[in-house]
Amino acid sequence: MLELETTSPEQTESVAAALATRLALGDVVTVAGELGAGKTTFVRGACRALGVTEPVTSPTFTIGHRYAGTVDISHLDLYRFEGVSLAEWGDLEPYFDDAIVFVEWPDAGRGTLPAPRVSVELGHVDPTTRRLRFDAADGALLEGIAGAHPRVRHGN
Ligand code: ADP
Ligand code: MG
Questions:
Q1: Do the beta carbons of residue 59 and residue 76 sit within 8 Å?
Q2: Distance (Å, rounded) from C-alpha 36 to C-alpha 45?
Q3: Beta bridge partners of 76
Q4: Strand arrangement, sheet containing 129-135
Q5: Mean pLDDT of all residues in 3-10
Q6: Rounded distance, CA 24 to CA 98, Å?
Q7: Residue 9 Cα to ligand 1 middle (Å)
Q8: Fewer CB in a 10 Å sphere around the end CB: N or C, the chain?
Q9: pLDDT tens digit string along 95-142?
Q10: Quick count: other Cβ atoms within 10 Å of Cβ 118?
Q11: How confident is the model at residue 156 (pLDDT cuts 50, 70, 90)?
Q12: Tens digit of each residue's pLDDT (9 = 90 or more) over 51-71
């Protein structure tokens, strides 16, 4: 587990960039947290670091977006899902094909969607401060993120 605090949207994007550059095709990253916590800001920072120049916006009213960067990046939002049925998986599966996948509001997909390599949870501390918690089996990946941001507080 890695915990960081950011004090601006730009800093959250920069932490996301440090994660993104350490990901590989097929990796799934879940991004949880309440409304306005910074989930889409985080995904935007990851996409920018991977060469996406088009707008990165919340796909709340569609199943997802697929962006072309140096690799393909899928951006899903399961806000409206109760669970993921076989039929819904049929619609979602193509987003997992040959892409790095970010999933906002991931709870409905737990156990059904491919297991995440990294789980991120964002929470409000104050209007401009967010706490970011990262969970991953790969400790080196977490150290890489922490090492890229020595000025951001991190604990265990
Ligand atoms: P979500 O997708 O979780 O609903 P968004 O990323 O769409 O959240 O919105 C987060 C909002 O909070 C944006 O308006 C952003 O500018 C603001 N914000 C303020 N401070 C931060 C921070 N430290 N990190 C991320 N977003 C921040
Ligand atoms: Mg969002």
A1: yes
A2: 15
A3: 64, 103
A4: 64-68, 72-77, 100-104, 28-32, 118-126, 129-135, 2-6, 154-155
A5: 96
A6: 10
A7: 6
A8: C
A9: 999 999 999 999 999 999 999 999 999 999 999 999 999 999 999 999
A10: 22
A11: very low
A12: 999 999 988 678 899 999 999
Which pair of structure tokens corresponds to residue 100? 């790095």
The residue whose CA is least distant from atom 16 of ligand 1 is 9
Residue 78 identity: L
Q: Which residue bears the tokens 């995440």?
A: 116
Instruction: Provide the token pair at 22.
Output: 């350490």
Output b/e per residue, 54-64; b: 16+ Cβ within 10 A.
Answer: eebebbeeebb
Residue type, 24: A
Contact 36, 68 (CB under 8 A): no
8 close to ligand 1 (CB < 6 Angstrom): yes
